[in-house]
Amino acid sequence: MLFKLVTTLSLLLWICKADDVLKNNGQFPRNFMFGAASSAYQIEGAWNEDGKGLSTWDHFVRRTPSPVVDNTTGDVACDSYRRWKEDVKLVADLGVQSYRFSISWPRILPSGYDKHVNEKGLEFYKQLVQEIIKHGMVPVATIFHWDLPQFLFDNGLDWTNEELINVFVRYARFVIKNLPEVGYWITINEPRVHCRRSYGDGLHAPGVSDDGIGDYKCTYNILKAHAAVYRMYKREFPRYKAKMGMVVDCQWYEPASNRPEDVEAAERHYQFECGMYLHPIFQGDWPPLVKYRVAERSRREGYTKSRLPSFTAEEVKFMRGTQDFLGVNHYSTTSVSNVQEASYNETRFAHDIRVSINRKLNWEVSFLGWGVVPTGVRRLLNLFKERYNDPDVMFTEIGVADDGTTLRDDIRIRYFRSYFCNILEAMQVDKVSVVGIIPWSAMDSFEWHRGYEARFGFYAIDFENDPQLLRRPKMSVNYYKSIVESKRLHCNTAVSVWNDKEIL
Ligand code: GAL
Question: Where is the signal peptide, in residue numbers (predicted)?
Fold first, then answer.
């Protein structure tokens, strides 16, 4: 009790001290949407229950040796398939306006095809959506957060195969039709991470390593799949109010120095990681720099055509403008320097992007070694505004990892405070349009190939020692609650200053 009191008092003191210099009026718009995020494979568990089909992740985690650092799986994870009511309540307790979750494709359609429906799986998501609404929140649903039905993969239908697009559109149509109360649809979560990890370096399920080839095929197909779902949605569901978009992961890429080659390297990094996904949906084609570099290296490496498949003029037109908002997952900033052109006898994505990434010594880093650089988010927002004609941006993930040893997650409080201040300043001073912030994540969960090592949650779960998987609020819960309730944040120039020396 005494410990709790001291903790709360010191937190209050710390916040007041930091708040003594106000830079702006600190007010988010009244209709601003806060939330918390999760994804099916990372929290649900019940991997083979109630008629669920297997996903590529269910298979992948069973490989020997385990591809997951701590040899764990998502078989049980947070057991959210059973505790969904409790979890929705925990999210609602944060006072937020939205809950982002994802739909497990094989839980609804065990084979991936819509000819065989698992009614129990469908019922699960119907009830989940109702429960979210009951608590006054907007359901934000991701259609594909990386758990491809294994049956499709076994039959040659993965994201490197164009034929998957139609199967995906049918699945998307099915869930959209059956979940009419979803408020925001996210077609695909982080196509870059998915394509690179799943078909490039093989660190994620289904573990295909085809560096510099498979990842580009995946990118090409997944972008077309996104556009096809968007067009289908607008055509077939004209009365639905939900907005739809794809979610990209974009960090801030800061040149390591003012030398032109480092500045160019940072731009290359941006274009290969972020522009490659945003340019097609905003402008309709690959960024010219990416197109040129991959074509050029492919030629010199001896390929008869570019390893990056090209879009036809029709496809360019089809893809352009397929988003109602720009969904972005942002975590960190990297310091980017130039490297020499690699020899042409090896095909690798790293040779195409040709950068070296680092972090500055004065940056705070999280448990995962990611830099905590709040000004990066403001720079990124300004870049979006400039390059994509002032889109409505929604942060569909933003957050920082801890190591799970304490509930006193000061780093998360510092992180949110400083990042949110920069977002607010970008909105108020630079006039960028941000419509919501949905931090990652509601609770600690299975972090893909990193297992349970990194904890991003507002609520802690002791996966190793607690069979009850009790959800315990970390200190950041109260902090986040206070921001969400008041929609107000007092910003100190020291953390939110724009043109200071924090980055360089
Ligand atoms: C994102 C991903 C999430 C979560 C997060 C933190 O790339 O969409 O599922 O794992 O990273 O690592």
Answer: 1-18
Quick check: CB of 295 below 6 Å from ligand 1? no
**What Å distances lie between residue 152 and 8, 113, 144, 441, CA to CA?**
51, 8, 14, 29
**Helices vs strands, H then E, count in the chain:** 19, 15
pLDDT of residue 20: 36
pLDDT of residue 4: 52
Find all residues with CB under 8 Å of 501, minimum gap 6, and list them: none
**Percentage with pLDDT > 90 across the chain:** 91
- What are the backbone angles phi and psi of residue 76, rounded to the nearest 5°? -110, -40
| pLDDT (tens digit per residue) in 428-464 | 999 999 999 999 999 999 999 999 999 999 999 999 9
pLDDT at 281: 97
| For the chain, domain boundaries | 2-498
Q: 395: which strand partners? A: 328, 437
Q: What is the CATH number of domain 2-498?
A: 3.20.20.80
Q: How far apart are CA 348 and CA 492, in angstroms?
A: 44
For the cut 60, the answer to whether the pLDDT of residue 422 exceeds it is yes
Q: Which atom of ligand 1 is nearest to the CA of 450?
A: 12
Question: pLDDT tens-digit profile of 238-295?
Answer: 999 999 999 999 999 999 999 999 999 999 999 999 999 999 999 999 999 999 999 9
Task: In whole angstroms, give the CA distance from residue 273 to residue 196.
Answer: 10
Ligand 1 neighbourhood includes 249 CB (under 6 angstroms): yes
Strands of the 333-338 sheet, one edge to the other: 252-255, 333-338, 355-358
CB 104 within 8 Å of CB 50: no
Q: Is 190 left (phi over 0), alpha (psi -120 to 50) or beta?
A: left
Cα–Cα distance for residue pair 347/297, rounded to 1 Å: 9
CA angle 343, 290, 259 (to 5 degrees): 75
Out of 39, 194, 329, 331, give the residue to mutate to test ligand 1, the one with the largest number of ligand atoms within 8 Å of its CB: 329
pLDDT tens string 25-68: 689 999 999 999 999 999 999 999 999 999 999 999 999 999 99
